[in-house]
């Protein structure tokens, strides 16, 4: 349930008109947050895969345009596309490991094909999100985020050793250490307003340390024009799948699955930090944000560059520093990134950053990614069952990556597929989660209309559930009352529904120890029940004829959660015995 605390730091909410000059200034600050990660992650991926500088110039150019486009789409509301919030987008490190494998196996064209399929899978998951929420859980996504960080870490340490021939062996470790130390110290002890800049200061310190060692190569910078478009190196799509393609495809789909879960969290954070008075999460906007992310991934695949994703951490830093959450800033950030893509000299300056500095940047990013995985697990409440799922999946995945026991037993592409830690770890987490879901207490299901006339059927259904659990009359009455008030709360005032007839209502009861969890899945409507419950005590007057139902529901239920998806409302009510 959302907090009722007011966020007084917000000067302009998402729908408020922000002065254009201020919006442009805040956007320029946001671009400084995005530019270095975008260029560096693309460079790390391309160089680790052994691709040439010409392709890297094209990949950076395309990534900046796609990042800008995706950021603008996040701020937009075009039908179901867009989350309507300022949500900064940049290239994600989650795809580094699988992207390197794809380019090593079949070059940029194989990468392009796999990213396109990942985008289509991502968009399908976004559409099916209400139906998958029991299997694609935070336990699964948190475990996979930790696995991804563990899989990419060797790439980062390999980059620390990449120095020009004839350079002292101490150059790489010294430059990497300078970058890490400065960044870490600033993250830990810098004043609040300077902390978001810690990474940029750390990169600058690493670059300065690299000068005496002679690690800079300005040849590419000197050859880059001030304005222009790189020679087109669009790789095209691989239309004749090979064994390597089939071996890598599940890995890309798994990372796409993780991106879905991460996108949900990012969009939720963006909603909460964009208003002075936080509201309950609107999952319809989350799905719109996910569709925007999916379009960004699709464009990345068509351009043959590493995929993009939204970043709530960068968004929160920008809003906290500026106090501006207006959507116009998102459009301005997107426009500036697109413009900068046509200035190769500027991006070329970032591409001259020595490899050990890039490696340290990646280590820090992976550390944050690993912690994000842990936080995702912790938010679910790690009971013994969930802890076993996460622990086993992570251990099996990491062990498989260290020793591919299938290499000598299976031929291609199965040895590549089953020998990848991300694939095996994710499959383990999903299988164990599905096992818990399927072997839990038997669910009961009732399908009726979202109509007060069907209340007797719902009441009879809940009495049967309570009787099966052995509840006494008082507990049974409390359960029946919670069901009645949930139905009354879902109904439109005066029983008015949208055109197309009375919506369908599905009631699912899940026994859970001494409590029962009720899920009410109803047709779409425009209000969020949690907002009413969160702010009910602040209302002195109201014209909502359902106010009594809201108060009674909060009285009968130990918890109430309302999720709004596009085309579906899910109200989850937990009633204790």
Q: Can you summarize this structure?
A:
Helices cover 61% and strands 8% of the residues. The chain has 577 residues and is α+β, with helices and mostly antiparallel strands.
Give the total of domains: 2
- What is the share of helical residues? 55-70%
Distance between the termini: 22 Å
Strand content bin? 5-15%
Strand order of the largest sheet: 3-4-5-7-6
Shape verdict: globular
In the predicted model, the low-confidence regions spanning at least 5 consecutive residues are 537-545
Please provide a written account of the structure:
It is a single chain. With 577 residues, this protein is of the alpha+beta class. It folds into two domains: 20-164 and 217-381, no CATH class; 444-576, 2-Layer Sandwich (Heat Shock Protein 90). The chain has helices at residues 20-48, 53-75, 96-127, 129-132, 138-160, 171-189, 198-213, 219-223, 243-273, 283-303, 312-322, 327-340, 344-351, 355-379, 384-402, 414-418, 421-439, 455-468, 473-490, 529-535, 547-556; strands at 89-91, 308-310, 444-449, 504-512, 515-522, 559-565, 568-576. The chain has a five-stranded antiparallel beta sheet. It has a two-stranded antiparallel ribbon with strand order 1-2. Helix 3 (96-127) packs across helix 9 and helix 7 packs antiparallel against helix 14. The chain starts with 19 loop residues before the first helix and ends with a strand.
């Amino acid at each position: 349930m959302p907090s009722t605390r007011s966020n007084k730091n917000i000067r302009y909410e998402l729908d408020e008109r922000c002065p254009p000059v201020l919006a442009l200034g805040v956007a320029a600050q946001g671009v400084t947050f995005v530019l270095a990660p975008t260029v560096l992650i693309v460079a790390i991926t391309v160089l680790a895969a052994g691709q040439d500088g010409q392709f890297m110039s094209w990949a950076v150019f395309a990534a900046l345009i796609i990042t800008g486009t995706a950021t603008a789409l996040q701020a937009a509301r075009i039908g179901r596309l867009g989350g309507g919030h300022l949500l900064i987008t940049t290239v994600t490190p989650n795809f580094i490991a699988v992207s390197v494998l794809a380019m090593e196996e079949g070059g940029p064209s194989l990468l392009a094909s796999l990213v396109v399929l990942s985008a289509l899978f991502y968009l399908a998951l976004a559409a099916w999100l209400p139906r998958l929420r029991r299997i694609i859980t935070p336990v699964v996504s948190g475990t996979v985020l930790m696995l991804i960080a563990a899989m990419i870490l060797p790439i980062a340490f390999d980059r620390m050793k990449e120095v020009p021939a004839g350079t002292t062996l101490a150059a790489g470790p010294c430059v990497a250490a300078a970058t890490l130390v400065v960044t870490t110290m600033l993250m830990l002890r810098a004043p609040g307003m300077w902390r978001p800049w810690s990474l940029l200061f750390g990169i600058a310190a690493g670059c300065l340390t690299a000068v005496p060692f002679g690690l800079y190569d300005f040849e590419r910078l000197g050859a880059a024009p001030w304005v222009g478009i790189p020679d087109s190196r669009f790789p095209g799509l691989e239309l004749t799948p090979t064994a390597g393609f089939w071996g890598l495809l599940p890995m890309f789909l798994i990372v796409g699955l993780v991106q879905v879960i991460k996108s949900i969290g990012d969009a939720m954070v963006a909603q909460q930090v964009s208003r002075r008075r936080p509201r309950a999460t609107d999952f319809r906007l989350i799905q719109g944000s996910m569709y925007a992310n999916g379009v960004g991934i699709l464009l990345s695949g068509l351009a043959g560059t590493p995929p993009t994703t939204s970043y709530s951490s960068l968004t929160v830093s920008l809003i906290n520093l500026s106090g501006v959450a207006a959507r116009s800033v998102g459009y301005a950030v997107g426009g500036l990134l697109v413009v900068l893509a046509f200035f190769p000299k500027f991006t070329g300056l970032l591409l001259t950053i020595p490899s050990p500095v890039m490696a340290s940047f990646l280590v820090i990013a992976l550390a944050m990614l690993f912690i994000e995985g842990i936080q995702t697990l912790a938010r679910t409440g790690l009971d013994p069952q969930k802890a076993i799922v996460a622990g086993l999946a992570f251990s099996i995945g990491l062990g498989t990556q260290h020793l591919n026991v299938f290499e000598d037993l299976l031929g291609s592409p199965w040895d590549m597929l089953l020998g990848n830690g991300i694939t095996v770890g994710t499959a383990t987490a999903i299988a164990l989660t599905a096992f818990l879901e399927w072997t839990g207490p038997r669910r009961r299901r009732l399908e009726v209309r979202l109509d007060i006339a069907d209340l007797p059927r719902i009441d009879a259904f809940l009495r049967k559930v309570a009787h099966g659990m052995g509840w006494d009359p008082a507990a049974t009455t409390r359960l029946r009352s919670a069901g009645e008030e949930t139905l009354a709360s879902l109904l439109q005032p005066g029983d008015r529904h949208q055109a197309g007839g009375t919506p369908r209502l599905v009631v699912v009861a899940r026994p859970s120890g001494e409590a029962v969890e009720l899920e009410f899945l109803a047709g779409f409507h425009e209000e969020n029940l949690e907002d009413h419950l969160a702010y009910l005590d602040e209302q002195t007057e109201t014209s909502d004829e359902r106010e009594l139902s809201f108060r009674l529901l909060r009285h009968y239920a130990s918890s109430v959660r309302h999720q709004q998806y596009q085309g579906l409302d899910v109200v989850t009510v937990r009633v204790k015995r």
